[in-house]
Amino acid sequence: MTSSTSASDRHPMTGNEMSGESAGGMERHQYDVVVIGAGGAGLRSAIAAHDAGAKVAIVCKSLLGKAHTVMAEGGIAASMGNVYPEDNWEVHFRDTMRGGKMLNNWRMAQLHAQEAPERVMELEDWGALFDRTDDGLISQRDFGGHKYARLAHVGDRTGLEMIRTLQQRAVQLGIDVFMECTITDVMLDKGAGDPKVSGAFGYWRETGRFILFEAPSVILATGGIGKSFKVTSNSWEYTGDGHALAMRAGASLINMEFVQFHPTGMVWPPSVKGLLVTESVRGDGGILRNSEGKRFMFDYIPEFFKAETADTIEEADRWYDDKTNNRRPPELLPRDEVARAINSEIKAGRGTPHGGIFLDIASRRTPEFIRKRLPSMYHQFKELADVDITAEPMEIGPTCHYVMGGVEVDADTQESGVTGLYAVGECSGGMHGSNRLGGNSLGDLLVFGKRAGEAATAYTNSLGASLPKVDEADVKAAQASALAPFEVEGGENPYTIQSDLQQSMNDLVGIIRTGAELEESLTEIEAFKERAKRMVVEGHRQYNPGWHLAIDLRNMLIVSECIAKAALARQESRGGHTRDDFPGPNAEWGTKNLVVNLNAAGTGVDLHEKPLPVMPDELKKYFETPAAPPPVEPVETKES
Amino acid sequence: MAYRLKMRIWRGDKDGGALGDYDVEVSEGEVVLDAIHRVQATQAGDLAVRWNCKAGKCGSCSAEVNGKPRLMCMCRLSDFDEEETITVTPMRSFPVIRDLVTDVSFNYEKAKELPSFSPPPRDADNKRRMQQIDVERGQEFRKCIECFLCQNTCHVVRDHEENKKAFAGPRFFLRYAELDMHPLDTNDRRELAQDAAGLGMCNITKCCTEVCPEGIKITDNAIIPMKERVADKKFDPLVWLGNKIGVRNKDNEGRTEL
Lengths: 640, 258
Description:
With 640 residues, chain A is an alpha/beta fold. Chain A contains 16 helices and 21 strands. Chain A folds into three domains: 295 residues, FAD/NAD(P)-binding domain, CATH 3.50.50; 139 residues, Succinate dehydrogenase/fumarate reductase flavoprotein, catalytic domain (Flavocytochrome C3, Chain A, domain 1, Alpha-Beta Complex); 104 residues, Methane Monooxygenase Hydroxylase, Chain G, domain 1, CATH 1.20.58. In chain A, strands 7-3-2-11-18 form a five-stranded parallel beta sheet, sandwiched between helices. In chain A, strands 19-17-12-20-21 form a five-stranded mixed beta sheet, covered by helices on one side. In chain B, β1 and β2 form a beta hairpin.
């Protein structure tokens, strides 16, 4: 690596200019579309924008190919009908809406169900190697909340296959990638009319130098917020950057009270607490038992899913081989139901030695089957916990996994309330309502990634030569703000504040919530915000994780406040939001979303209610009772 | 169960550095990356280290632990004696950026040189058909998490910086093999693998296979079969004669040579 080079001589990996001659040590780039994030959503958006003719840049905090999409295990839900020909988008749409307890944006759920199959086929065109059916088609597996076996998969490492395929496609197309580069501000042109996006400002993690992208369209694809919780399946990157960037730019977020706690995370050893154990374990026959050996899920079948869930062990066990005459095992209820049930069992004192519940596939399937179908789970438990899952049960418990809430966007284009600002994937909101079905995330990334990339390009093209301008005063302010933690004397270590925030969110805004605890959490968040003003970092700007955390922590704080505030306001229990003081859903709350914005002073969060978009009659018919259609039962019983 | 672990961690940048001594509390079930994180959170806030998933799935936290190329997140402290000092250094084959973070751009450059998958049109019903047994060969190679430990270990570049230009390394031989064995790919990449990617420079010492955290049999299942495919094409006397006299003017099995 060279430390001083000419402006055109870029670092071969990162594209970093490393030039001391750039004005103010800051480099500038011009693009039609800038995508922030290089997971499935970011890569798919960038490919779509490129295909639509845009000059596009991908900016990501990690190396290319490391985003959290690699952690997705189960598969991509798409009604391709390869295993059950009866499956179609209408059934998938219905499953998605019911899984989200009808709080989904119906249009997003519809588009997702309609377009997911073709998005999966595209991956195959680009080199993905999915598992096959006997006929040589893409195989599809069972998952919680999905009526038919529907998840296109590669063993239990589907996310890795997806990200590698998209990464290789983006490289093939020659899309510019700025790796290990963090965006801290979306730039706005606040001239005539409403504010419009004019670019994005950030810094190279490697050198600490600033970088400015001038671009009329910015697509946020930054993923989730899990790092605000202590027990999480999410990595360090998931600090709510897109959520916070959007809010600071003036966009609103919806559904922030809905956080998905995945029922099955590892509980031991402590260092991997929260690490995901795929739902495929249950899809492939695994069951949940408490310390008394009881298969307890039969005690937790809610009214809403009674008609389609087996109520005896015998029927549940028959379902794996005969789906025509039997109903689904309760272990395959949607994630919110299973997570709550596990939580109740542990609270009632029927937990395992390490405070979890047993997930048992060893007594139900052969070692060969388990190793073939769940290779990375086998590996993960063997390497990290010394547990052989073909011989003994796993210990698992709920872990913060996914946020249903996110930037409020237009369903067809993914544009936020701010002109030129788009959000896609986990950082957008609406698609999954109050609870996401497993397998619907990967499809979400692909379907709406493509839509956002195309819409952002069309918008940029519509501007012609009159591009929004970056205000140099805003650039100065962004620089000052990023460097502030170096200016403090005798302040607090950001790692300590982060750790305290994670504990607080886990304790007070976790899987079961009460009004009093949520109020307490808001008080604590205010205190964290005060402490964060006095954060100090040691060392200098080159690859300094302490500084990076200090910057990300501001996003974690504002997003945490959104979650706590919305959770306090919603006085009911629905999907990923459970209130001990308001058990059960409330019909009136089922008609509205909660929307949050940054307040006028920029110091906190304002909240208001908004009516849910009304579903047109031709879609409503899928939810009429009692003949809840489409009632077609599978006629084939092929193993997927 | 907690105890004090003695660690030596390399600190420095491209201009040089040294091993620093640390004494950090660790507990049962932890891995080397946990210890590094605790040093970072309590003693050295600016200690640079790459990591993401902490579950052996993303391949970010590659380093050398007591001289062995490992993922720090899959390196359990229980495999070491409690009294033993654990030494962590950055991957040796790549230039250091800072502390444990290295410049792995070599790999991203090599990825760009590789011609991508090129399928025929879909079937009439808009689907594609492949048999499970045929995709499984490629699936093994696609388990690769791009930790680049194989690239770091391969002595062709580890000890010979000058070879980097002409040598793509084990990770990309995997990719060549994956595409060559893909049931639907329409390109013949054998010449390219041999000449441009430097497959011939590999003398199958299997060091790459040994360090692969995914247990991919890089040498046996990818490199050796690729070498055989190249040899069939280049050195089989009958194929050579057939090509020479025009009976068999191409040996691309219906594929397009790149």
